[in-house]
Amino acid sequence: MKLLIDDADIAAIEEIYGTYPIEGVTTNPSILKKSGRPPFEVLRDIRSLIGPAAQLHVQAVASTAEGILEEAHRITQELGPATFVKVPAVPQGFKAMKRLRQEGIAVTATAVYTPMQAYLAGQCGAAYCAPYVNRIDNMGYDGVQVAKDIHDIFTKNNMACQVLAASFKNSQQVLELCRYGVGAATVSPDVIRGFVQNPAIDAAVAAFAADFETLTAPGATMAQY
Ligand code: E4P
Predict the structure, then answer these.
(1) Is residue 10 part of a domain?
(2) What's the gap in Å between 132 CA and the centre of ligand 1?
């Protein structure tokens, strides 16, 4: 399972990207709004930070297929070929996805709450499909199970589309999908920071350092021996 950052905060992306095994960054209009900056200004900053080959997912907002196509051209022209255009899995979005497939522009189907949306997006040529795990949980359904069902639909029908699970509240949701082998998950910096926040881990590392100091000298490391 590939891991992506779901955010547009440059400092947070720099920190997480420099630390964890990250394949790219996803954004949506609400995430861009939080930056308070012109959309392409912040997106260009993200692109130069992650480099030309990493995945960058950027959402189209037009309500018609024609409008989405126009946005897709602008987005890929501005941000390069490793950019995925996020298209809502609604009727006008499906229409746009079929055209974008013909043009060779990579699509991530978004605003996915149901397996039927995912099936249709996959058939229309989307490369990824983003079920909103935590938002589905909040509606009283099981978001992780919906993401697993979508993965099964893609696998059993030999579809090339992969799950890019999104909208996570905690590491457990992410880990369950990792265990299941879905294609990717996009996760906020706060949830990623929580992946290895555990007093037992910190205590073990501190105890090893203290034992080494007792054996050698305060502040010593293997580099000095
Ligand atoms: C991804 O495609 C979504 O835009 C995003 O992950 C939604 O996350 P949220 O439910 O935390 O807003």
Answers:
(1) yes
(2) 6
